[in-house]
Design goal:
The protein is mostly helical. The protein is built from seven helices and three strands.
Length: about 170
């Protein structure tokens, strides 16, 4: 069975037979899968009237444990955005009633961001629909192949994310 990447590789092979196109075999497909995943994620989140960045913040809070609260600094680490961006995101989620700010019980000068009951219901529902969409995407793989693919991608991501490894 051929796909669009096979056709692209064939065209490039014809035009540039001097090049090793092996990386395209993998990474062009990763790009195409990522686009499909983005579409599926957006659709799952839309069912709960949120977008990806909102899910990311709500999910970081949800994963934090029983209190469902984190400092803005910890949210920055969890979501990898700038402090100005995080402030804007917290403001927007608070205006929608999905999070609230409160005093940090461990630091009188600090603030924590907490999920509201509406935020908790939203992120939990969105997670269920996201996992349903992701299972649907992976259902085309034979049994065991998804675990093998996860292992391979973990190894690749681990190497790419190591700070000492320039590309």
């Amino acid at each position: 069975m051929q796909d669009e990447v096979d056709r692209l590789i064939a065209d490039w092979s014809r035009e540039r037979p001097d090049l090793d196109l092996a990386p395209m075999q993998v990474l062009s497909r990763v790009t195409r899968v990522a686009k499909q995943l983005d579409h599926a994620r957006s659709a799952a989140f839309a069912l709960h009237d949120i977008v990806s960045w909102e899910f990311d913040v709500l999910a970081a809070l949800r994963r934090s444990g029983d209190s469902y609260q984190l400092s803005p600094g910890r949210l920055l680490q969890e979501t990898m955005v700038t402090s100005g961006t995080m402030t804007n995101r917290i403001d927007r989620l608070a205006a929608r009633g999905l999070v609230r700010r409160g005093p940090d019980p461990h630091d009188g000068r600090g603030v924590v961001v907490s999920l509201t009951p509406a935020g908790l219901a939203t992120v939990d529902g969105a997670l269920v629909d996201l996992l349903t969409a992701e299972r649907r995407i992976l259902a085309v793989l034979p049994t065991g192949d998804a675990a093998q693919l996860a292992d391979l991608l973990r190894a690749l991501a681990g190497e790419l994310e190591r700070p000492s490894q320039p590309l």
